[in-house]
Structures are given as structure tokens and as C-alpha cells.
Design a protein that fits this description.
The protein has 312 residues and is α/β, with parallel strands linked by helices. It has helices spanning 3-11, 18-21, 36-46, 70-87, 115-123, 142-150, 176-180, 182-190, 211-217, 223-238, 252-256, 297-308, and strands spanning 24-30, 52-59, 97-98, 133-137, 158-163, 194-198, 208-210, 246-248, 264-270, 273-274, 280-281, 288-295.
């Protein structure tokens, strides 16, 4: 095994518990206005200061019925990030919030300039292969790919934890975060950086929350919890949820990988190759990534409820 591979495998290990080594430094890249799970994930990260030292929060682009295009989705996500920080009384973090890409990558060799991409390209240079910056991405991975294209040297100084794509056994990769910017996914999976993938369907799709759980564990705890309960309930009803509805809060699982609980099961595998036809390609000679195949749902929800329910 060559030195580069040894370093990659070291970075792919789960962070040592903060009680032993202190906090881990991390940034969050999020399409916060797209779906309610981003709000839960951002809130969990902000309310875990004893474990995570936040160095940046980046607004990611998205385009669906909640936006008129990638740029509008990014702007709405930027505003939603600031709104959540207000609810958590964390004005001190607002200077770390950066606007991201207004479009997706035009190709696999051209970045999309943005304050977020430029910030990551510069910030990561203050880290080392032995003490990397953790980059949690829970949207289209455009900002991260752009930073890698702007400054390829950061590849060995970061660990990318991305919720995107479907499980390798799933019949397609037609997943929102991946299909929006396949070029960006190919850059990230192909550059040799340490990547932890949390696939959606077939893995984190089990991480859903119900109305009664929200009412029992979060309602009335604080302003943030009441906002999350009301927003989640309204969204479920608006989208035609049944009386016994559940709502996805998948993105929480990506943040959980940085915490010191045993919330995920994973293994090493050669990096899959996202294809433009919504499928994976495979090459056994590719560098390794860490692939999450199971979420300990109940344990993670216990931590989520306890953390979000704390008084600000």
C-alpha cells in the first residue's frame, strides 16, 4: 500500500470521540430551504458545540417546486440558514454563512465561482492530511466540487461526508442531490479525496419521523423545536400526507457521522462512478470510500430529541 492510500484510509476512519481528542472542525453545505431534514441537520450541528466546531455554513443550490431555479434555491437556503440561527440565538455564527453556487457545474473541469467555494478552497489549506477539515454536504455537491477544482491541493486536507445517490443495490441513482449535478458528483468521487457516502434509498430512507413523535419529544421545548414541529407538520399536510404520515429527516444522518455515538454501520469499497444515465459504474481498481449501509434509527433519534430539546 502506498503512502497516499495509507493517508486516505486514515482519513476515512470515524473521528475519535471528542472526549478524547477535543472538537472536530467542520463545515456544512446545505440546501436548507429544499426540505425539512436540512433544518434538523443544521440544528443538530449547531447545538452540538461540545463535539463540533463549526467553521463555515454554505448555502447550496437546488431546483424543484420550491424554487424557480438553482440560484433562487440557493438564495432561499441562505435566508433559511440565517432564520434558524436566529431561532437558536446564534448571531455569532452568521459571519460564517456563505452564499453558494448559482448554477451547477457546466462540465467536470470548470468550477462555479461562489463565496462558499472560495471560502472552502482557502479554509481547507489550514488543515493537514493528519488533521483534516470535515465537510458535511447534504445537497447537490456543486460547492464542494467547485472548491476542489479551484484548489485541487485541498483534496488531502478534507473528509467529505455526503448524503447523496442511492444504495449500490438500488436499480438507479435517480436521487435528488446526485441527479441535479452529476458532473459535481463525478468530480468528488473521482478526485481521490476521502469520501463518506450516505446513500438515500435503501439506506437512510429508514430515517423518518412521525407526527406523534414530534408532538411527544419536541413540541413546547423551545422556539426552534416549535418551528420544526410546525414546519414539518404543515409540509406533510400540504404534500398530501396520510393521517399516519411520516416525514424524511435523512440529512441528520450525515451530521451524526461526526458525533461520538455509534449511529451508522459502514464498510470500505472502491469509489463508485456516477453516470449520466442515472446509474453507477464500478471499477475495482478505484480508490476507497467509506460506504454507509445501515442507520441505527432509534439511537440517533434519541440523541436528536435530547439535543434539540435543550434550552438555548
Amino acid at each position: 500500500m502506498n503512502q497516499d492510500n495509507e493517508g486516505l484510509l486514515r482519513r476515512l476512519r470515524k473521528p475519535v470521540p471528542p472526549a478524547v481528542t477535543g472538537k472536530v472542525d467542520a463545515v456544512l453545505d446545505t440546501d436548507t430551504y429544499n426540505e425539512i431534514d436540512d433544518q434538523f441537520a443544521l440544528s443538530l450541528m449547531v447545538k452540538s458545540p461540545q463535539k463540533i466546531n463549526i467553521k463555515g455554513i454554505y448555502a447550496a443550490p437546488f431546483h424543484n417546486s420550491r424554487s424557480s431555479g438553482p440560484a433562487d434555491g440557493m438564495e432561499k437556503s441562505y435566508a433559511e440558514i440565517l432564520k434558524l440561527l436566529d431561532l437558536m440565538n446564534r448571531d455569532d455564527l452568521k459571519s460564517l454563512v456563505k452564499k453558494g453556487s448559482q448554477s451547477y457545474l457546466p462540465c467536470e473541469t470548470a468550477s462555479v465561482d461562489s463565496p462558499a467555494a472560495c471560502d472552502l478552497a482557502e479554509l481547507a489549506m489550514s488543515y493537514t492530511p493528519d488533521k483534516p477539515l470535515y465537510v458535511v454536504s447534504i445537497g447537490a455537491i456543486t460547492n464542494i466540487a467547485s472548491a476542489l477544482l479551484l484548489n485541487p491541493e485541498i483534496r488531502d486536507r478534507i473528509v467529505i461526508v455526503w448524503l447523496g445517490g442511492h444504495a449500490v443495490h438500488w436499480p438507479d441513482t435517480n436521487e435528488f442531490n446526485m441527479k441535479q449535478d452529476v458532473a459535481a458528483a463525478r468530480v468528488v468521487f473521482g478526485c481521490g479525496a476521502a469520501v463518506v457516502q450516505l446513500p438515500c434509498m435503501g439506506v437512510v430512507s429508514s430515517f423518518r419521523i412521525s407526527g406523534p413523535e414530534l408532538e411527544r419529544w419536541l413540541k413546547g421545548k423551545n422556539k426552534l423545536c416549535d418551528y420544526l414541529v410546525n414546519y414539518t407538520t404543515q409540509s406533510a399536510i400540504k404534500d398530501g400526507g396520510l393521517q399516519n404520515w411520516t416525514r424524511v429527516v435523512w440529512d441528520v444522518t450525515a451530521v451524526s457521522w461526526l458525533l461520538d455515538g455509534d449511529y451508522t454501520r459502514d464498510y470500505l469499497m472502491p469509489a463508485p462512478i456516477p453516470q449520466y444515465d442515472n446509474h453507477y459504474g464500478f471499477d475495482p481498481n478505484r480508490h476507497f470510500i467509506r460506504y454507509v449501509y445501515h442507520i441505527e434509527r432509534d439511537e440517533l433519534f434519541k440523541t436528536l430529541f435530547e439535543t434539540l430539546g435543550e434550552q438555548s
